[in-house]
């Protein structure tokens, strides 16, 4: 089976990672060789020893000892062996989805980049919180979950502590920090100056052109044309969204191994455009195969509740993808926003009959007097998506969770590079098992003025921690903060 193109181009930039504690007797010559991770075999990428495709659980786990420049396992020469140590990382080739593996690849690249920089610059021991690279490493490790590469990342940070302890008489809290890596010498000069605002950011201006032609890509939905529930229901509460609650929710599918892997979310903002995160579009992801609208339960089409079945889902392809030029590709990068122009307009929006369509655009705060701009910390937002459940697996049904608006300056105590002019924080309730980590990357953060009022989007899921309920808020790209940019990209 041919390797997915995206894995190839993502891996080539990464130097080979050798596991010094995991060895095999290579079948070719019976010599002891280290495993080479990651290695690609067939249509999978492996960060540990595997018995993938073998149905017998007792079959020994193996790893590659020889790979090419793309990390593809070199077949035909017995360049492999059964893993010897019990400490070898293990995996079955199925527990890490494409987004997990992308985070892992970015992690390895991050480590290699900092190793290279250390050899080129003057470095000194400073507190880990004052060094850009150690903060990057810490933030990335918090997003890695239980992926085996997370240990590599943590070990790298620990290695930095040990070097300073040996050279500088450190206390276990210092790292070797190179000249360019000192906090305060950031390269994000394109960011507007952070403000200490505790409200939702406002756009540069409210000079937007309104018209009533819904078929044009420049249509700005408002009032009864956006954010409404599209299926009547008397059921309330719970973490599973109700059918028709969020008719603007979109699901992005990526081309992986000849199939489609759903990894990110988004929101429909008019008949032609879907709003998502920049880290959810190429070159940070595989090629987008489709955008699914009107979806609720991925296992059913059409979706049904106890009283009716509704219109089938609608699948579109991307015609044009516009990522914000300020996004730098980092896991905690600012300007994490993108627009996707669909290959054709959504023909039918909800107009009172859910058997015709359950799709409706979300409202954006185009007017200066919108209630959104009067929100304060502790206001309740809603985030939704087909993200991970408590078991760690994606949900077939659309999930929802309430998250409180988190004070911007306080949020910066956790996420130091967060810019309150273009980002907002939500969630972070200590001990609350359901938090924003359950939403899809790129998915919408929304709010209502009252329960019977339309949903307005205030954020796009950007980054945070992969662990729920530990008191860390999630960071969202502010929709209103970048509203002018959104407007400027929309074409008829």
Please give a handful of descriptors for the protein shown.
492 residues; Thrombin, subunit H; six-stranded antiparallel β-barrel; 6 helices; alpha+beta; disordered N terminus; seven-stranded antiparallel beta sheet
Topology, element by element:
Blueprint: H1 5-11, E1 17-25, E2 32-37, E3 39-41, E4 44-46, E5 62-64, E6 80-82, H2 98-118, E7 123-127, H3 132-142, H4 149-168, E8 174-178, E9 249-256, E10 259-268, E11 273-276, E12 288-293, E13 314-316, E14 318-323, E15 338-342, E16 380-385, E17 399-406, H5 408-414, E18 423-427, E19 444-448, E20 455-463, E21 473-478, H6 483-489
Antiparallel strand pairs: 1-2, 3-4, 5-6, 7-8, 9-10, 9-12, 10-11, 11-15, 12-13, 14-15, 16-17, 16-19, 17-18, 18-21, 19-20, 20-21
Coarse morphology: globular
Largest sheet: 7 strands, antiparallel
Structural class: alpha+beta
Strand order, largest beta sheet: 13-12-9-10-11-15-14
* CATH topological fold name of the largest domain: Thrombin, subunit H
CATH H-level homologous superfamily name of the largest domain: Trypsin-like serine proteases
Number of helices: 6
How would you classify the quaternary structure?
A: single chain
The low-confidence parts are 1-20, 180-197, 233-238
The domain count comes to: 3
Distance between the termini: 42 Å
CATH architecture of the largest domain: Beta Barrel
Q: What's the Cα radius of gyration?
A: 24 Å
Strand segment tally = 21
Mean of residue pLDDT values: 76
């Amino acid at each position: 089976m041919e390797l997915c193109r995206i894995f190839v181009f993502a891996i080539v930039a990464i130097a080979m990672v050798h596991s010094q504690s995991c060895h095999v007797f290579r079948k070719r010559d019976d010599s002891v060789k280290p495993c080479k991770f990651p290695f690609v075999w067939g249509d999978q990428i492996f960060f540990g020893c595997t018995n993938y495709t073998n149905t017998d659980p007792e079959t020994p786990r193996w790893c590659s000892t020889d790979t090419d420049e793309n990390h593809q396992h070199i077949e035909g020469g017995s360049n492999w062996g059964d893993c010897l140590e019990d400490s070898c990382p293990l995996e079955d080739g199925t527990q890490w989805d494409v987004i997990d593996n992308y985070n892992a690849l970015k992690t390895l690249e991050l480590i290699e980049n900092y190793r290279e920089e250390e050899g080129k610059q003057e470095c000194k021991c400073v507190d880990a919180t004052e060094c850009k690279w150690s903060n990057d490493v810490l933030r990335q490790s918090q997003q890695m979950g239980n992926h085996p590469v997370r240990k590599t990342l943590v070990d790298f940070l620990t290695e930095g502590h040990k070097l300073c302890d040996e050279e500088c008489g450190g206390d276990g809290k210092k790292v070797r920090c190179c000249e360019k890596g000192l906090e305060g010498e950031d390269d994000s000069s394109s960011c507007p100056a952070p403000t200490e605002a505790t409200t939702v950011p406002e756009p540069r201006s409210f000079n937007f052109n309104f018209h009533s032609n819904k078929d044009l890509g420049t249509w700005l939905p408002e009032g009864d044309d956006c954010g409404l529930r599209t299926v009547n229901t008397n059921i309330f509460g719970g973490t599973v969204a109700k059918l028709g609650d969020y008719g603007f929710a979109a699901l992005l599918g990526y081309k992986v191994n000849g199939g489609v892997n759903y990894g990110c979310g988004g929101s429909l903002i008019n008949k032609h455009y879907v709003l998502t995160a920049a880290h959810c579009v190429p070159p940070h992801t595989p090629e987008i195969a489709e955008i699914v609208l009107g979806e609720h339960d991925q296992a059913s089409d059409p979706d049904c509740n106890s009283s009716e079945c509704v219109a089938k889902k609608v699948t579109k392809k991307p015609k044009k993808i516009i990522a914000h030029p300020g996004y730098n590709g980092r896991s905690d990068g600012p300007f994490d926003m993108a627009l996707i122009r669909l290959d054709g307009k959504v023909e039918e929006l909800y107009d009172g009959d859910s058997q015709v369509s359950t799709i409706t655009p979300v409202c954006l705060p185009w007017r200066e007097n919108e209630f959104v701009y009067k929100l304060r910390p502790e206001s309740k937002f809603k985030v939704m998506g087909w993200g991970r459940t408590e078991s760690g697996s994606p949900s077939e049904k659309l999930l929802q969770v309430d998250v409180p608006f988190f004070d911007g300056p306080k949020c910066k105590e956790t996420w130091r590079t967060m810019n309150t002019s273009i980002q907002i924080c939500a969630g972070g309730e200590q001990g609350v098992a359901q938090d924003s980590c359950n939403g899809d990357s790129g998915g919408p953060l929304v709010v209502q003025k009252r329960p019977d009022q339309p949903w307005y989007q205030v954020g796009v899921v950007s980054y945070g921690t992969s662990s729920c309920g530990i008191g860390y808020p999630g960071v969202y790209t502010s929709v209103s903060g970048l509203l002018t940019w959104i407007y400027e990209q929309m074409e008829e």
